[in-house]
Specification:
The protein is 41% helix and 23% strand.
Length: 145
């Protein structure tokens, strides 16, 4: 069972705040521990903005042992985009955050998200008409959720 969250019109002053807010939704849903948002920020600080996968979309995550309690996936749509420092895909207006309790679930969740994104998920999320629509669009894209 995947815990799915959605937040809309989130304000963030910079990428760190955007990442923390996206990951905090997983904490609030009970899918991640309290330290998970800071772990997600460290991923970008240590490895650069590789999480910005396509134009305007970041895949927020950290390793399972850094706070994943359950499989959780959340979408956060920003009120105004933020810069991550990615040479091609900035600015980011859509963040998909995920967490998992173990490496196998991590790979499986990442694979499911990749399939959904290649099927146009980002465009459908941008076209969603509010938080409820965001949540249902994400649930429809992840059949195992």
């Amino acid at each position: 069972m995947t815990i799915v969250t959605a937040t809309d019109e989130v304000t963030a002053g910079d990428w760190r705040e955007a990442v923390r807010k996206a990951a905090s939704a997983l904490v609030e849903a009970g899918a991640a521990g309290e330290g998970y948002p800071d772990a997600c920020v460290r991923v970008v600080e240590e490895n650069g903005p590789y999480i910005v996968l396509t134009k305007g979309l970041a895949l927020v995550h950290a390793r399972p042992e850094e706070g994943g309690l359950a499989v959780g996936v959340g979408v956060t749509r920003l009120a105004a985009p933020v810069e991550f420092g990615h040479p091609d895909n900035d600015p980011v207006d859509l963040l998909l955050a995920f967490c998992t309790p173990d490496p196998d679930a991590h790979v499986g969740t990442l694979s499911g998200l990749a399939r959904a994104l290649s099927g146009g998920l980002a465009d459908r999320l941008r076209a969603a008409s509010g938080q409820d629509d965001l949540s249902s669009t994400l649930k429809e894209a992840l059949p195992d959720a």
